[in-house]
Amino acid sequence: MAEETKLKKVVVADKEPKAEKAAKVADPVGASIDIATQQMIKRAQELGIDTVFDRAEAMKPCNIGIQGTCCKNCAMGPCRLPLTKSAGDGPDERKGLCGATANTIAARNFIRMIAGGAAAHSDHGRGVAEVFMAVAQGESHDYKIKDVNKLLAIAPHYGVETTVKTEDGQVLDRDVNEIALEVAQKALDEWGKAEGELFYLKRAPQPLYEKWKKAGVLPRNIDREIVEIMHRTHMGVDQDYKNLIKQGTRAALADGWGGSMIATDLQDVLFGTPYPLQSEANLGIMKEDHVNIIIHGHEPILSEMIVAAAQSQEMIDYAKSVGAKGIQLGGICCTGNEILQRHGVPPAGTYLQQELAIITGACDAMVVDIQCVFQNLANVAKCFHTKLITTHRIARMEQENVIHIEFDEHHAMEDAQRIVKMAIENFKNRKAEVMIPRTKATQIAGFGVESIRYHLGGTFRGDYYTLNDNIINGRIRGIAGVVGCNNARTRHNEAHITIVKELIKNDVIVLTTGCNGIACAMEGLLTPETAAVFCGPGLAEVCETVGIPPVLHMGSCVDNSRILLAATEVVKAGGLGNDICDLPAAGSAPEWMSEKAISIGQYFVASGVYTVFGVTFPTSGAPVFQNYLFNELEKIYGGKWDFEPDPIKHAHKMIAHIDKKRKALGIDKARERVLMDMADRMKLSA
User: Fold this and answer.
1) Residue 461: pLDDT over 60
2) Spatial distance between the Cα atoms of 394 and 12, rounded to a whole number of angstroms
3) Which of 6, 346, 411, 451 is the most buried (most CB within 10 A)?
């Protein structure tokens, strides 16, 4: 962005006035493609409030750190190994003080990111499992099991029987609470059991499970794999990049097929399995004449209770008593996605919009739990009346104006009511002019493995065969999982939207989670009507016939496990190979920024998915190790990494991979449409 340098005179005691550069600020249009975001960046600058967009202009990333070749794992460092132009001309002689090569350093840093991401997702899962245990034991009365069918569906994966045989040979259903208690115990054991392997690994297609077994990467328990990464990457331990990434793969699989999948399943059992519903998205969902409560973070245990409290007649009447017309809830990040997919609560924005929600002047309370929460929210809240409330014991802020209400599942509703009351009482304290952008869009969200099956075939013939059939006949070219965060180092939402539009234009159906899902909702891509405008003719026809959007929002970032299971269902339906790596499918994280994204990427790669990242890649300073990730891993798992910052090229790399898989399956040729009679349909259901 070209920017004229502004100068101001500063008088220094006993010296001549000198010119000082004004602080750099972001160009609102250059910072985001979203109109509401542009408006709020401009408002923040007018008020003299810095946001992440301005800080990204003022602070540039370290060139060596961004390449992944800075080691600070001991006090002899940091050892910085920049990649020079001549590095590829001969042997790479770069070494740290201990002799660690660029490949070793990059591999250590890479799998430490996996450890951080897997720990974040899996600790979230542990928290859900602990609440589930409390419910099963009858210790938490504010929660109950909402989806018994989901409980009965997952119980066999833990080896838990759902029926019991009597002495006279009768088969009876077991008590639901007994099943729940046994599932809860076995789920919690997944974090620390001494022997065996994770139960959910065998939910994968059999050929994939056998690959993991042969490669020696079956996770033993979740915590052990994360701890072992920290041990291996300690100074002077594992110094072989291939061996390091092998352990990184174990930990990533413990995330995707362990902690994250457990979190998703148990949340569905406790709070209800999502099914499609209509909502809205963007900052325009906030209402000036309502109490606005923004819920931000990733763990839905508290947010479920806040939704229940805010929707109670008692709280609505209380809000009206202070002059408000009601209570408007809004979400940010993945807590927002959790309450969206189960209750229709609209997301106010993505990760990079969290400060902007406060800058509207209408945010009466922002309630945060864990992950992706800016500490600068406290500084922004000081400029307004907003109550910033932290709720988790491991996620507090140092600023004095932050209120900490530690959530306890044993009196969940009491905590939630206290928070909602605090927001209501703060409504009358608004001190700044309210400016809420009018921009918002309609969306259909809440898709999952179960609802996709239903949409494809109805109550009696729901099956993934319909999807497979449309891939085989070419109406749908393939499947893309496009997920992940925003990154202030690139234009907000531009890569997300450009890539998704390019994919659906080329008849690739998109499954989305996390901030990509919110970005697509803000752009209006999550409605069935979208298909006629943006899709190729084949995908548009399928969407019109079935009544679904071309982009299916499947939940929060922890819900990427839904994409893994959907891919497994496609394999089971037949006709597209025997393993996930056979499918015409690809993955993408266009604007990634967190360690969780690296863990997600690695478990998708290890599950057989070609996975492309945008913005930057943290191994570019170690070409040999990067080549191992980008090419050699495919020989082991069937999936591999790739990197492409240009969004159009990024999308076409995915399409090229999908076409390669179609050719390998022999479905790359156009096929004539066949009008099926009843006899043909009977054969399908046989």
Assistant:
1) no
2) 45
3) 346
- The pairing of strands 641-643 and 610-613 is parallel
Binding residue ranges: 62, 70-71, 74, 79, 98, 298, 334, 372, 485, 515, 557
Binding-site positions for [4Fe-4S] cluster read 62, 70-71, 74, 79, 98
Residues 288 and 177 occupy one common structural domain: no
Contacts 24+ apart (CB under 8 A), 625-632: 625/102, 625/103, 625/106, 625/107, 625/110, 625/241, 625/245, 626/106, 628/241, 628/242, 628/245, 629/245, 629/605
DSSP label at residue 360: T
Average of pLDDT values for 267-282?
Answer: 97
Clarify whether residues 414 and 473 are in a common domain: no
CB 288 within 8 A of CB 434: yes
- Cα gap 448→454, rounded to integer Å: 10
Residue 13 lies in a domain: no
Residue 6 falls within a domain, yes or no?
no
Same domain, yes or no: 216 and 355: no
* Residue 268 three-state SS: helix
140-198 pLDDT per residue, tens: 889 999 999 999 999 999 999 999 888 888 888 999 999 999 999 999 999 999 999 99
pLDDT digits (tens, 9 = 90+) for 388-433: 999 999 999 999 999 999 999 899 999 999 999 999 999 999 988 9
Q: Are residues 333 and 371 in the same domain?
A: yes
pLDDT in tens, 105-149: 999 999 999 999 999 999 999 999 999 999 999 998 899 999 999
Residues 555 and 629 in one domain: yes
Angle of helix 260-271 versus helix 560-573 axis, rounded to 10: 90
Element (H, E) at 586: strand 585-589
pTM of the shown model: 0.93
Number of domains into which the chain is organized: 4
Q: Is residue 676 part of a domain?
A: no
Q: What is the pLDDT of residues 486-506, one digit of tens each?
A: 999 999 999 999 999 999 999
Task: Give the domain range for residue 352.
Answer: 283-429
Q: Does residue 88 belong to any structural domain of this protein? A: no
Q: Are residues 354 and 471 in the same domain?
A: no
| Closest residue by Cα to residue 219 from 260, 239, 248 | 248
Residue at a domain's end among 245, 271, 297: 271
Binding site for [Ni-4Fe-4S] cluster: which residues?
298, 334, 372, 485, 515, 557
For the stretch 629-648, pLDDT in tens is 999 999 999 999 999 999 99
